Amino acid sequence: MRLFVALDFPDSIRDSIRELTAQFKPLCKDARWTRVEGMHVTLKFIGHIDDKELDSILGALGKVQSDLPVAMHFRGVGFFPNERRPRVMWCGIEASPNLAQIAKQIEAALVPLGIAAEKRDYIPHLTLARFDSPRGAEKLVAAASEMQLLDLGSARETQFHLFESVLHRSGAEYKKLKSFSLVKDTA
């Protein structure tokens, strides 16, 4: 099994992203565009595990909680590592501070199970497109620079999810294996 942990977001934001990418796609034929219906806010990529490890992962994730829902504002576009050598085009996410704290909690819960911690800082984003080389991306980069403040909508999430990623020739298919309540029970 190939697993990751992520937040979902409303269809209204997916619709805004779909409209945005429709404008961008003709500008760069070499980009590999992410399917909007499969987009998610990744908290932790776990990778390949044996089926027998699943129960331990579910148990560890069940202990991750926050005092508040996660507030996210989807705004602007940019490139990793930078505009001169783009490898990934992203939509930015301004989030409440607890989003980074939840990502750290997930890391801490999974490390004792032998799942390596991420070496890079957590930067919430949605991947819009990937590039094998920066060739042909100039028009896309120029158009994106004018959309730094573009507002694609807001969301408040009270759950996070464990997904299985099943790879096919046509791309990855994501199956939601389990949802976890994010906010502590106040009863």
Question: Could you explain how this protein is built, in words?
Answer:
- This protein has 187 residues and is α+β, with helices and mostly antiparallel strands.
- The chain has a single domain, classed as Cyclic Phosphodiesterase, Chain: A (Alpha-Beta Complex).
- Helices cover 23% and strands 37% of the residues.
- The protein is built from 4 helices and 9 strands, in the order E-H-E-E-H-E-E-H-E-H-E-E-E.
- The chain has helices at 11-24, 54-61, 98-110, 138-145; strands at residues 2-7, 32-33, 41-48, 70-80, 88-95, 125-130, 151-157, 159-168, 171-181.
- The strands form 2 sheets. Strands 2-6-5-4-7 form a 5-stranded antiparallel sheet. A 4-stranded antiparallel sheet has the order 3-1-8-9, covered by helices on one side.
- Strand 8 and strand 9 (171-181) form a beta hairpin.
- It is globular, with a radius of gyration of 17 Å.
- The N and C termini lie far apart (36 Å).
- The model has no long low-confidence stretch (mean pLDDT 92).
